[in-house]
Amino acid sequence: MEPPTSDRCLGQFRTVIDIEKGYSEPDQQYPSSARTTVGAPLSGLKKLFDHTTNPIVSGRYTINLRRLFLLLLILIGTITLWFVAILPEHSAERTDSLIQNAVGITNQDRLKDDEDHARPHVSPHTGAQDSATYRYERVRGKGARTSLKKIQFKFPPESDQDRLQRESRLQAVRDGFEHAWTGYRDHAWGHDEVSPVSGGYKDNFNGWGATMIDSLDTLVIMGFNKEFDEALEWVKTKFTMTNNPTIQLPFFETIIRYMGGFLGAYDLTGEKVLLDKAEELGKYTLNAFHGSDFPSSKFTIDPSFSGSDESFVLAEIGTLQLEFSHLSKLTGNPIYDQKARKIFDILGSAMPEIPGLLPPNVQAGEGRKYSNFQASVGGMVDSYYEYLLKEWILLDGKATKYKEMFEEAVSSIKKYMIMTPEDGSKDYVILGQVNSTSKTVEPDMGHLACFMSGSLAMGSKYFGRSEDLLLARQVAQGCYLGYHHSASGLAPEAARFTESSQPGKFVTDPQHFFSQYRSRMEYILRPETLESLWILYRLTGEKKYQDQAWEIFQSLERSCRTSIAYTGLTNVNNINSKDNRMESFFLAETLKYLYLIFSTPDVISLDDFVLNTEAHPFLRT
Fold first, then answer.
1. pLDDT by residue (tens digit) across 426-449?
2. Checking CA distances to 340, which of 39, 102, 204, 286 falls within 20 to 30 Å?
């Protein structure tokens, strides 16, 4: 049976959905309502009773046939009036639930039988309903402001077939997240990670509840309001950063997972405790600078135990700008934004052999020269290039220097890193690792580098570089093929290929695409390919990116799902090689990107939000 739609009759009366209000009302196209139709004849009934007819005598009762007929009419009219005017007021919730099976209350994410996911009613509310409504609207960009042009594709109305397929996939992803979250809640509540095969937990990232904080905004986006409130209560009553004030903490991971998690969830919910925690953490992270313009890789809560580094990982010092700038804007304290800008200013003054491309390890001080290093867009450097573009977006295009730095890097990437397959295919490329002095390039591309496709695509739209969009498509296709050709359907940590005798080309393995012997074969539930597929879908509207993402999700279900949650693999060609780990970014990023690619385009629009490297959405204001 075909599900009901918003203009289908329910029972005997037509009911419509107010998409903005999120609940059903009588159809205003019919001003002559049932109340009027039933009530109007009643005023003339008395006249009919004034006429007499021949009675029928039966025992003790004398019955007038005409009066009996009129009494029956009155009774029928009264019952009809009760159904039309009174019953709907007491059964609105039941009617809404019927309609939700077809239109999900918003005529957008039509997820069946799920009160938490559907937009809450906005007529007489409780505080919880008010909060859920606020969250719903913020997820869809309420309050966002920007002077930059819009870049998202203008999606036309969906066909019924496309809508039903998209919604079924959306529901499957949401179910997958719920499975993983339940496993974390049951086995590792308040700890960093759940062990998805054995049960139990691991505390690898400060022991502060990394999965909890990393997942907060995903819970909101997917409409898990009860679960979010449960986690929020834990943050209010249990979360602390000061139990071990002298322990060495990882600066980079703390920024992107914890600070990013607090800020993203605050932007979507307005819960002040989240901003308070972000600000408290911000003060502690200042200890990492310790008299330097660059933060150390480790810091302590107690400033007397923090040290300083002589060499700094580029991605670690170049991946705090979004978080620090946003924290300054939300708190009014400029110190964080000043620190962030100073780092980019120094890096922008560097003089590497390849313009715009910096080595994995850099030193403090302006005007540094760098030579004879391996340049890539993968591990240890990746999110620096990501943040050059995103910081420009978050600052509403006012930091023109960051745009120039990003464009310079992209020009060098195109000139030196692109490698094409020897078989002549134009469908895909990889971004290899190039020696800054010899300019020789090796056919190695880590999974982390797959983010670059999304950055290229966004930059092409903002800066009018149409050729960069073509490159973005080719890079994404190369990353996707790493999934498509493995036994598990999942891509390795680093795909390495055989070198060709022709410069700038590589040779694929005829069976496995990448070399099984040279590649790093583990898969740790990484999100970067899905991130780029989502961005490309939102910018082009091409359904093939949804199909590729769905293929990856199905591979996750087959190869990584356990009875508790999801696990990584030590070898993508062996689905039994489970590593018993589920990093927090699987819930923060991987499943979030999957959900967003199947949601309606107003959910976390690229025109309203900037996502940090852990996929935490910062509202553009």
1. 999 999 999 999 999 999 999 999
2. 204
